[in-house]
Design a protein that fits this description.
The complex is a heterodimer. By secondary structure, chain A is α+β, with helices and mostly antiparallel strands. Chain A folds into three domains: 6-108, Beta-grasp domain (Ubiquitin-like (UB roll)), CATH 3.10.20; 112-241, Fumarate Reductase Iron-sulfur Protein, Chain B, domain 2; 246-324, no CATH class. Chain A has 14 helices and seven strands. In chain A, strand 3 and strand 4 (74-77) form a beta hairpin. The longest helix of chain A has 16 residues, at 226-241. Chain B is of the alpha/beta class. Chain B folds into two domains: 2-118, Glutathione S-transferase Yfyf (Class Pi), Chain A, domain 2, CATH 1.20.1050; 129-291, Rossmann fold. Chain B contains 14 helices and eight strands. Chain B has a four-stranded parallel beta sheet. In chain B, strands 6-5-7-8 form a four-stranded parallel beta sheet, with helices on both faces. The chains are: A alpha+beta, B alpha/beta.
Chain lengths: 326, 292
Amino acid sequence: MDETTVKATFDVYRFEPGKDAAPRYDRYVLDLTPHTPVLTALLKIRAELDPSLTLRYSCRSAICGSCAMQINSKSRLACESPIGPELARDGRIVVEPMRNQPVLRDLVVEQGTFWQNYRTIEPHLILDPRHPMPEGRENPMTPAQVDRFKETPRCIACAACYSACPAVEADPAFPGPMALAKLYRFVVDPRDHATQDRLVRIQTEGLWLCLRCHLCTEACPKEVRPSERIRDLKELAIAAQGATEHGSRHATGFKENIRERGLINEMKLARQSVGLLGLLPQVPQGIRIWRKKPELFRAPHRIEGHDEVEKIYEALDDGKTKEDLP
Amino acid sequence: MKLAYYPGCVAQESGKELDMATRWVARALDIELVSFPSFSCCGSGFMDEANEVLNVALNARNLAIAEKAGLDLLTICSTCQGMLTLANVRLADPKVKSRVDGALRPLGIEYRGTTKVKHLLQVLTEDIGLEAIRAKVTRPLRGLKVGAFYGCHLLRPADELAWESAEEPHAFEDLLSVLGATPVYYRGRVMCCGFPIQFVKPATADKIAGHQIDDAKAHGAEAMATPCPLCHLSLDAYQNHAAKAVGHDLNMPVLHLPQVVGLALGASPDQLGLHRHLVSTAGIVAIAGARA
């Protein structure tokens, strides 16, 4: 291991709402080995240079999920982020609190909404009241059944995904990647009795605001891959309830749309997603775009070999989801 | 070099200027584009939510078409790039492969998984090479500050898709430098453009687009450039809505990737379809020309 120390420059976000007029960045320079975790460096700063620096941490072993923060703009656990690669790339380490949550002080954020969104999905098994589990008995699952949600229990609720999510940033109606990934875990649990209710409810409670941007999957330190769990939830929601929302109608509309010509008919897709009435407010914008891009209102050509596309639909568009694969 | 050209839906329809610019740049750099009128839509990250295996099967057919011709496949859209590459990944799962084969075999279509899917950005920076491009620059974009905007599906999810760092990519910025422009680094360059929920909740989609344009602007960008025509719709065609959502004028010209390359390689604005944008590009064409 490389024991040579390097001069590490930290620019740390400092802010105490109600006391400071605006946030500032305090600079600290320390001699550290490149494998030093950012958390260790921050604790050294607090112990030796500035006892007022406020941060949240506990286990220092990437288990408790307390020390998520932004390190050079990326949402990360400070305890498992060595300073070396950050310095090599950016020359310094900018440490900021997580995004999308109000700052309480310095690197500590207020997490009320994050936890409230989690409680809303009812993150516990809901058993069939007619068949309560007998006292002292187990409710066994097969390995294959457990496999369907093997990623989600790894979640340590660090909120790195929540911090990285542009939908959370723009819209409080989106419950965030963690809450939806946890919901998926109960939806595919064979012991849970509320699957149908859960899928119906989430369709109107933010599921379709997910942008499919996968920023949560990159931020997650435990490889829960929330964006993929959300994708699976969407497919299950449509299979359970049909397409009832603009988002699900966009997905099923897309599927039907491609079947007709093999390529997307943009105008027709808009109608399929939001309906004729829903299109009305879009008319002025449509005309604006059409004046520059006259193809907008034109149906695309039918692709060659369209009959093959049709036959593939006949074989595979049978209402089954990926979860039904043998 | 010779590639199967997969233009995707938008470049054949409302984003025709992307197709025009791609063909111009391909000619200038001796890339032979082979067209296949039988390619179908990639599913765009929406269709798989209605039926993932069906979506994978349609893309297996697309990939098999290029495979039969012995060609790698060129995409010019981050989303097409993502969906076609993901199809290759999903088809490595024997359960998926067997269900897809069951639908394709009766049609005489064989998918073997040998065709690589490459976005134009990757072909330009890795196959053609930055030095070869530099040698053909006739109108360097000296001093033009350009913020690259990557689009989500070009590199994420990284485990499956990334051909360079998904969090700190630099291929586009490297290319911009070779073209004589000054690349602008900003957090929003790897964020989402908002387009996927334009039909779900336009106000939220517009706000997200506005955030990224604002971020580029705050870091000094005079123009943005994107390898994804869906991002282009969001950032250019809907920019007036994005401006309303963030409460101030944005006035940010947004170029398609091959348009920036074409400008530096000497194409005329008309050849690149720059007149088809909603936000005027006249300012940056003038800057590029004047500073050259």
